[in-house]
Amino acid sequence: MLAQIDWTRPWYDSVRPAFARLHHEGEDFIDAFNANAADLKLANHHGQPIRFVPQSELPEGRAYEEFIGATGCVPTRDNLHDFFNGLVWQSFPLIKRELNALQAAQIALAGIGKARGPARDAATIFDENAALLVVRDSQEAHALVAALRAHRWSEALCQRRAAWGAHAQPWLFGHALMEKLVAPRKAITAHVRVVVANDGYFALSNDEQRGWIDRKVAGELAAQDLTTRCFTPLPVLGVPGWWPGQDELFYGDVSVFRPRRAT
Questions:
Q1: 120 neighbors 102 (Cβ within 8 angstroms)
Q2: Sign of CA dihedral 242, 121, 195, 161
Q3: CA separation (Å) from 191 to 63, 79, 236?
Q4: Rounded mean pLDDT of 184-201?
Q5: Would you say the pTM of this structure is higher than 0.85?
Q6: Given its phi and psi angles, is residue 245 left (phi above 0), alpha (psi -120 to 50 degrees) or beta?
Q7: What is the rounded CA–CA span in Å between residue 131 and residue 117?
Q8: Which of 4, 113, 130, 254 is deepest in the core (most CB within 10 A)?
């Protein structure tokens, strides 16, 4: 299963260091996850240590998110989806903690129903399919973000290509998104949340940037209401340099790079 993952792909940059820290044999990764979780002192919003446990330990009828919030135990199946989920916990633990706190609070208010409600729905989208686009507080970056939000794909991804890296950095967060990208397809699309950073961020090391993002976004989640309006779509393989053949024809594929709907 794990041999399917191509760790040279740039979309795994955000969790590759967590994978590199694992000491595991074969496909059994839960013990390795727990060793890393203990070293990192991961905890839920009640301060309980995060532990990865087999899915069978989740009681029947109990909500997954509520169980984590109440016990610190993360039910984990032997599949790529839960493997990436564990790596995200080890890479962005503060964001994961805040998302779980939000989800657990919503379940406590409304129970487990067919409809999640807007806040829980937004948290689920964030958890499963988000990418964080860290942008410099600059004219170039703000113009790039405006083009993305307006679905001016050629402008954002082709004409403003030089701004990527220098003024804008994408960091994948959603574990379902990472799972889908094991077999990359042009249509795979992330829900992007924009994070504004000052110039000092761009001088940090990779690990320092990851820690800054974790603290910054977790603080925003704790202070603000989360809604789906904070996201903008981005076909992942359209990120400059992430896929070959990114020319005007590539970005002109309207089945993937769709125009914004008229309102």
A1: yes
A2: positive
A3: 24, 23, 10
A4: 98
A5: yes
A6: left
A7: 22
A8: 130
Residue type at 138 in one-letter notation: S
* DSSP secondary structure, the chain, as one string: -GGG--TTSGGGTTTHHHHHH---BTTB-HHHHHHHHHHHT-B-TTSPBPEEEEGGGS-TT--HHHHHHHH-EEEE-SSHHHHHHHHHHHHSHHHHHHHHHHHHHHHHHH-S-S---HHHHHHHHHHHHEEEEEEESSHHHHHHHHHHHTT-HIIIIIITTTHHHHTEEEEE--HHHHHHTTS--TT-EEEEEEEEE-GGGGGS-HHHHHHHHHHHHHHHHHHS---GGGEEEEEGGGSTTSSS--SHHHHT-TTTSPPPPP-
| Residue 102 predicted with pLDDT over 90 | yes
Yes or no: say if 153 and 260 are a contact pair by the CB < 8 Å rule: no
Here the tokens at position 219 are 């603080």
